[in-house]
Amino acid sequence: MTDLSPIIKAYDVRGVVPDQWGEPLAEILGAAFVTVTEAGAIVIGHDMRPSSPGLSRAFARGAASRGADVTEIGLCSTDELYFASGRLGLPGAMFTASHNPARYNGIKMCRAGATPVGQDTGLADIRALAEKWSETGVPAAITEPGTIGARDVLGDYADYLRSLVDLSGIRPLKVVVDAGNGMGGHTVPTVLDGLPVELVPMYFELDGTFPNHEANPLDPKNLVDLQAKVRETGADIGLAFDGDADRCFAVDERGEPVPPSAVTALVAARELAKHPGATIIHNLITSWSVPEVVAEHGGVSVRTRVGHSFIKQEMAASGAVFGGEHSAHYYFRDFWNADTGMLAALHLLAALGAQEGPLSALVGSYDRYPASGEINSAVADQAERTAAVRAAFTGRPGLAFDELDGLTVTAADWWFNLRGSNTEPLLRLNVEARDTATVARLRDEVLGIVRA
To answer: What are the two backbone dihedrals, phi and then psi, of residue 417, each rounded to the nearest 5 degrees?
Structure first.
């Protein structure tokens, strides 16, 4: 029996092309997706990777073979695909491997209204059908084949985003954007068109081989060019997008990175101004500043596990207006609870442009505590090393332990979280405290145990 577990993960399809998968499997997955979702029509988009057009067209053929009418929106960001799914009311499939190297590709799938398809919400069934049909072939459908047509939604996507954030009265801003040769180079010019923004583009040429640097702004080395350009041009702000442009990172006028937790707190405050008393979601690795700001602005904060499926589930269950993660994923109720870095960027521009001070001063009130950032350690046994850390801190007075996601240990003036990667033999450590010396001390103590 074909085993697709190496490429069909908890939330998406991801693997090396053509070594692990290619167009024949994409066609089968298209047929399986339509069968499991019982969709009469779907929407498909793809990023700029060399393999993406062929894979997405094969998926479309498979979907049409099962009777579904397919709307291809072509080159797009992941959040543009979510927009199309929400606006058109159709299940969707986005062909991208986000920030992974060029040889990778994948599929992010959703039901109508951008509701995610994960392991427990259809992806396991899609995998089971695809494994079976890889052996037997896709059975002939009893319905007539569906149609495949094209539609451009970029303008509608840009108009919708701008309708959610009032930028009409902002002062002129100079904005450097590093698209990393990813889909931000396609979407940013249209979204920012007509706004009082002087755009300084970097690496806007769509190139899925990523010739300048990886399209992964979470890694500090991929922000170096942006930081230098902001300082060189005297820009007010720098923005960096990942490969499929669903995540957005910011640097201030000095070229210093703005922590995603500070962006989460800032956007939360803005959303609470529109929706008094509303709920805000944040994962357990975001800064203490996030629930503090939410409380100060009269909102209710809900702490969740790391991962978009948990955030989106909690968004739907609680009716939250906004959710943020330390990885710069930002989720909005007004955007079908889906993540969109572009909308978060517009909030940043609106907040910055509404006052005269620099971005560093604006975010200072939201960036309150020193933190270690995420530190990865390769380990042979995640559970054994985590247990060793827990044992080392057990019995110390004034500590609270929880295992919502990995191990979190909290004291009056610090906390740390240690959690295992789902895909690699790694433990990820995050530390936050009220002073840098405590961050360094805790970081070194925990890493000393983890790496012993």
So the answer is: -125, 135
Q: Are 120 and 167 found together in one domain?
A: no
Alpha helices in 137-196 (DSSP H): 154-164, 184-192
| Buried b / exposed e along 135-149 (16+ C-beta atoms within 10 A) | eeebeebeeeebebe
The number of residues in the chain equals 452
- Domain boundary pick from 125, 152, 179: 152
Verify that 252 and 285 share a domain, yes or no: no
Q: What is the 8-class DSSP label of residue 35?
A: H
Does 202 fall in a domain? yes
Instruction: Provide the number of structural domains found in the chain.
Output: 4
Residue 109 near residue 81 (C-beta atoms within 8 A):
no
Among the candidates 364, 397, 426, a domain finishes at: 364
* Alpha carbon distance 419, 401 (integer Å): 13
CATH code of residue 320: 3.40.120.10
For CA atoms 151, 155, 160, 161, the dihedral sign is positive
* Confidence grade of residue 129 (pLDDT, cut at 50, 70, 90): very high
Q: In terms of Cα–Cα distance, which of 176, 163, 166, 234 is closest to 204?
A: 176
**How do residues 248-286 score in pLDDT, each as one tens digit?**
999 999 999 999 999 999 999 999 999 999 999 999 999
Our answer to whether residue 98 is catalytic in this structure is yes
**Span 233-260, average pLDDT:** 97
Q: 63-82 pLDDT, tens per residue?
A: 999 999 999 999 999 999 99
> Is 51 among the domain residues?
yes
**106 DSSP β-pair partners:** 14
Out of 65, 98, 261, 327, pick the active-site residue.
Answer: 98
Residues 419, 260: Cα–Cα separation, whole Å: 19
Q: Exposed/middle/buried for 172, CB within 10 Å: 0-12, 13-18, 19+?
A: exposed
| Same domain assignment for residues 19 and 146 | yes
Domain limits for position 59: 13-152
Element (H, E) at 231: helix 224-233
Q: Is residue 230 assigned to a domain?
A: yes
296, 391: one domain:
no
The rounded distance, in Å, linking the Cα atoms of 200 and 282 is 32
Report yes or no: 71 and 41 within 8 Å, Cβ to Cβ: yes
The answer to whether position 3 is within a domain reads no
